[in-house]
Each structure stands twice: as C-alpha cells, then as structure tokens.
Amino acid sequence: MTADTKEARNQAIADLLAEARRRTLALVAPLDDEQRNRVYSPLLSPLAWDLGHIANFEELWLVQTVGGREPLHGELGRFYDAIENPRVTRGELPILRDEELRSYLEEVRERTLEVLGGLDLGPGQEDPLLRDGFVYEMLLAHELQHQETMLQLLQLVDGYELPLPIGTQPVSAAGPETIAVAAGSYEVGAPPEGFAYDNERPRHAVELGAFEIDRTPVTNAAYTEFMDATGAEPPDYWQRDGEGGWIDTARGRREPPAPDHPVVHVSWQQADAFARWSGKRLPTEFEWEAARERLDDVGQAWEWTSSDFLAYPGFEAFPYREYSEVFFGDEYKVLRGASWATHPRVARPSFRNWDLPQRRQIFAGIRCARDAG
Ligand code: AVJ
Ligand code: FE
C-alpha cells in the first residue's frame, strides 16, 4: 500500500465521521439544553445520554483500545454503558451535560483523528479490528444507529421540526398482492468481506418451504379495520378523536393516521395478531431475507419477523460480546428492513435489528406471509 492510498483511505474515513457528526448535531440543534436533558419516556434515553454515549463509544474503541490512550474523564464511561444502565435510569446518572458534553464530543473527535492519522487500515492488516477499517465502520454505524434512537425521542418533542425528510410515504398501490418464493436452499447473512456486525455472520444456507409474502406492508387503514373487527389495541401514540376515529400524536402532530401509509409503532404481539386475523402469519427472518430483492416499500418501517434473535451456526462474537451475544435467546424478536429514520448506510439486506416483543417505541410495522399451496 502506498502512502498516498493509505492517506486517501484515512481521509475518506475522516470525512464520513465528520458527515455523521454533522447529522447528529443537526438533529439536536433545534433543542435547548433543558430539552436535551429531559426524560420524555422510560423507554427512551435523554438525548444528552445518547450524545455522551456516542462520544464515549468512540473514545473507548478508537482512543483507548486502538490509540492506547487514557480516557478524558476517568471512570465516566461506566455511566454510558448501555447494559449496566437501563434506559429508565439514565436521566438520573451523573453524565456530562450542556457545555461539558459539547467539549467532550469535540475533544474525543480530535483525539480520534490524531489516532487515525497514524494507522494503516488496509486489507492486509493483521489486526481484524483495523483490517479494512472495521473499527471505524463500526463507530460510524454506531453513531448512525443512535441517530435513529434519538429520532424516536425527538418526534415526541413539542414543536420539533425535523431537519430531514420526515415520515412514511403511501405504500405502493399497483401490482400483484403477493410475491411467491419457491422452496429451496437460500444463502443468508453477510459475506466475509465488507463491514457487517458479528450477528450477521457467518453467511450460510437455509432450507425454506414454498411461501408467499405480501408485496407491501400493512397500512394504517388495514390496521384500523383489524382494530374495529377485533377490539385490538391501537399503535402507540394513537388517541381517540372523540368521534369514533383516531388521531396520531407522534411527530408533533395531531392528525388522523394517513390511511395509505404503513402502520408503525406496533408491538410484535399486535403484528402477530394482525397477521393471524388476516389468515396469514409473520415471515421468518430468512424468508424476509430471501424475498428482500423483490419486496416493495422496504425502508419505511422496520418489519417484525417471527424469528427469535439467535446466533447463526458458527457465530463468533466480534469485537465485543455485548453488541449481540448477550441478547441471543428467545426473549428478543428480530426485525428486518429499515425505517424512514434509518441511515441508508445501516440498512444492509443482512442487517438484523431486535427488540423485546412488547416494545412499540421503534418505527416498526408489519408485513405478512403464508405457506404456499
Ligand atoms: C441493534 C438497535 C438493537 O440500540 O440496542 C446501539 C444498536 N448497539 N449501541 C440497540 C446498538 C449498541 C442496538 N439495536
Ligand atoms: Fe450504543
């Protein structure tokens, strides 16, 4: 590798990090410090926690682990540990706030760029953390993923206007209703090269029976019909309008849910019940992945699958157990796709999101499937 290419690669990484940070700061720019520190929901961290956690994750991996340097604020990192500090406790922690928080983000970034300047992140690197810039890709993905978590909260802030194209679009109207997928062996998961999280690997073959999957996600109109027929609970943030209808209070609005938009903020149980009521079922995550290329409206809302969040055969935790491994088991359900709030860099076809089945704060909707024949 010539010095030129090495420098060009490091510059490209520095540019991506700068771009992600501009987006993070743009999202919270309309708020004041009080709003950044406020607890809006026990399911969502105060924004100041997410911001400090983003900087702390960067400090831990880039400055301390790769750069071998001491942290700026001693033991502070333990308050930004997502496993040690459940969301409901985060408003009470002695985390950095206001001016101290802004300085921390800046100072960590300065140090990160200093460390980056001396590194060779080429494909020939022996250290898997550095090879092909893995640790930087991870850092970038981490910040972008936390932007979505912050958007889950930002949409609840009164009067907040997003500095991004907002919300869902009508689902595609024309064409066949379902896509038929033949029985057979399908490759799933991320290939060995390129960035992916440990839980997406190794790529492997799965046997699928013939199935059909809906071409489009479930709309607000279809979900309302289901509620009327069964008395099912509404999605989160919907309230009665006093005349037998509904208003959606998310995203700073009080409007009837747009009938032709995908339903969001439903739990796994609501998604599963809807699918059964329609004479269908939720797809498995592998059915979803096998049909991915042929599905419409992927990327408007996460889609609940029937699959538990489990390790793929031959899974190896990398670079830390707490990203995926500690969540494996039958407690969490896998969501596939992406939402309107997901940065395109995050939304690989093999990307696995997960949450507790009862959770509704994520931008999660429904797509149904059924056995063919
Ligand atoms: C993949 C969204 C379940 O928020 O717990 C962020 C992403 N991991 N920081 C989560 C994540 C570490 C993760 N999800
Ligand atoms: Fe995180």
Main sheet: which strands, in order across? 9-8-7-10
In percent, how much strand structure appears in the residues?
5-15%
Total number of strands: 11
**Tally of DSSP helical segments:** 8
Shape: globular
Helix content: 25-40%
Estimated structural class: alpha+beta
Oligomer: single chain
N→C terminal distance: 56 Å
Please summarize the sheet with the most strands: 4 strands, mixed
Low-confidence spans: none
Task: Draw up the topology in text.
Layout: H1 3-28, H2 33-37, H3 47-66, H4 98-117, H5 134-154, E1 178-181, E2 184-188, E3 204-208, E4 211-214, H6 220-230, E5 238-240, E6 246-248, H7 268-277, H8 285-291, E7 302-309, E8 329-337, E9 353-355, E10 364-365, E11 369-371
Parallel strand pairs: 7-10
Antiparallel strand pairs: 1-4, 2-3, 4-11, 5-6, 7-8, 8-9
Helix pairs in contact: 1-5, 3-4, 3-5
Bound molecules: N,N,N-trimethyl-histidine (AVJ) and fe (iii) ion (FE).
